[in-house]
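Suppose you are handed only these lines of text.
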Amino acid sequence: MEVIIKQTYPEMSQVAAQLVVDVLNAKPNAVLGMATGSTPLGLYQELVRLHKNEGLDFSQVTTFNLDEYVGLPVDHPQSYHHFMRENFFKHVNIPPQNVYIPSGTTSNYHAFCQWFEKRIEDCGGIDLQILGIGSDGHIAFNEPTSSLSSRTRLKTLAKPTIDDNARFFERREDVPVYAITMGVGTILDARKLILLASGNAKATAVAQTVEGPITSMVTASAIQLHRDAKVIIDDEAATELRMRDYYEFIYQAQPGAPTT
Ligand code: PGA
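From them, the structure of the protein bound to 2-phosphoglycolic acid can be written out as follows.
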């Protein structure tokens, strides 16, 4: 795992955007795994800027989103369909038929989850998966005690997640209790992972993810098993890391490191 600590949120968003650009330069028809939440907004804004000003092309890209609330129609202002449309898809040139987001309104969740997994496979697998992290250490909506080999399925949201997400809803009771989410196993199958975190509220979860034991109590810690995972964080999210100096040394020393 590589840990990249940047002083500010805009700087970490730019590092993340550059990694997406690198993947698209190497493979213009890449399959990207998308995340919602406040954290990737800076990354999406930078990608939109690169698309508009520097011709970054998404015309062959396919995307799969991590999760969606159960029960929210696609045009609900808090649905992840709505979030993705407003914050990213409507500003870039990804063909609408290449966009896959779990359905929060299907009449058959079990069949939908199986179909979603199959679509990822049929599209060749996810090349780069973008991840946020919950204050309880979740990735996607894989709440504590989720199986580390889980696949796309329904999950019940944990109380800290409902509390965190209540800020987006008029009343706490309006936050959906269930979500449809890629599993930890689905996420680990992606070829590259980038996990983004910003702010003090994420510092404990970040330290547990990077330096703690691999445990289903912190599902993000499963990324320790991945061969190509980068954790990109700002200064505040890095405050509880014990090995911070080491990560910064590695990042700074990179240009001089042997490449063969
Ligand atoms: P946030 O959510 O980016 O809004 O903090 C992250 C998450 O819960 O995965």
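What can we learn from it? The beta strands are 2-6, 31-34, 62-65, 67-69, 99-100, 128-131, 153-156, 178-181, 192-197, 229-234. Residues 37-39, 132-134 surround 2-phosphoglycolic acid (CB under 6 Å).
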